[in-house]
Structure prediction request, 560 residues.
Amino acid sequence: MVTQFSAQSARSSRWVSLAMLVLLHAAFWLGVDHMWARPLLLAHLGLFLIWQPLWRSETRLSWGNSLFILGVSLAALSWLNWWLMAFWVGGLFALVGARAFSFYARWQRIYHLLVMAYLLAVLLLHIAPQMFNLPAFEEVTHNLMNVALPLMLLLMALIPVEREKPDSVQAIDFFYVLLLFTLLTVLVLGTLAFMTLNQVGYLDALLRTVFFIAVALLILGALWHTDFGPFGLQTSFSRYVLSIGTPLEVWLKQLAADAQLELSPREFLESATEHMLEMPWVVGMAWISAEGHGTLGNASQHRVELADEDLNITLFSRQSVAPTVLLHMRLLVQVLGYFYQAKRREQHLREITRQQAIYETGARLTHDLKNMLQSLFALASIAQSEPARAQPILQQQLPVLSQRIETLLGKLKAPASAAESREIELASWWEELCQRYQHREIEWRVTGGSEQSASIPAAMFDCVADNLIENAVNKRLREPSLRIQVSLDISSLTLSVSDNGSAIPSGYAQKLLRTVMPSEDGLGVGLYQAARWAQQAGYQLTLKENKANQVQFELKQQPK
Prediction:
């Protein structure tokens, strides 16, 4: 149905324009002083109102506009002369020329080029000789009106009607119309000036004017390119076209400032739309998005609905929107939509970051609790199997466990507290670690001198050490002869845990510390969280050695 309607619309527009030219040709053939010239031109004007591209076909004219058009038409017909007809034909030529190159279909473009050729021939070879009172051109104009131009009209009638693309829009740009009308006016008046000042014939004056206009256009075309440095006109003209009399640069600066100040997408939209209302051609607007909706200003009968993804904006203007201003509106809405979507992505990233922080904190607390329970389980096992040996061990370990339980309870009450960033001297932390695991049959080794050690993040070092030692102890359950060694280099702030057991499978070793890896020994979530925490604190946890009889994990400060 859409295709058939488009084809019928194109065909009807073609025949209306052709009938309009036939009536105009008949009026010229009879002459402006003939009694039938005015009725023919009035019918021609009626067909022009049907064909014209200035107003949309669905637009309803008010009584005021209708009376104005009727009054201007009657006044023009009452003062009808060749100068008025030259003005009218020049305007038709500018309208058709501004629209000719907006068509994609080849035959449509050829048809409009023939219409331009017809109007130009009528103006230069029929109307202009009548205006300048050139009786020598009577034979030329007679042959033109009786033979040449009717054949051209017949040729235009035989051109096939080609359907345009459904998404193509043939809009009239006022600047192109004005430019073509100005060129045609310069051509006619320049010819008259050469004829009057230089006392030359009409054709000679016409050719001179065409030559000078061509030279001027060549010069402007050369200056248009930016290759001429400061003399290039393209940059200056582009700045003029982009402004279109609106405070675009001021609004963009305010938009950038709002993007920096406002964190919420809704608050950003409210602020940006308030600034957009300051545009001189906007009287009101309404917006709807996933963040809500809002209205500003006053509504009018002239409205433009624009959308960018899930942002829908309706702009109300004081008068009907021209195609150039409509393009300007779309640009503004696209820029606003870009900043709005960026604000939504920022908010989404903040939510993801917050959830990730909660997850990481919960994972750390879970593994701290798991390590503490494992320590309690080890102490309970010793107390059950060796009651005599358990008494001194419990006296030493219970204060340490009480302190760890108190720290863990504090983290549960306030996960983002300063407990995780508490720093302690490395030597003091090492003594506490040795005391905490003295019953686990672990070899302890310290290097790097006895001078005062630097401060370290105690919570992070506890997490890394507990995970590495507990994993090694669990590995000893499968390999009873396993020897575990914990080494500390005070000078380089390096902690390493090694064993002489079997190597970690290569498939696990490559992904270990980089992602969560399920494993029967627990070498997955705990080490991944410990590695992430170490990286955030400026350290690096790596699997330094992974071969039979030599498996070593190392925690070392990253170089600055």
Summary: Confidence is low (pLDDT under 50) at residues 1-7.
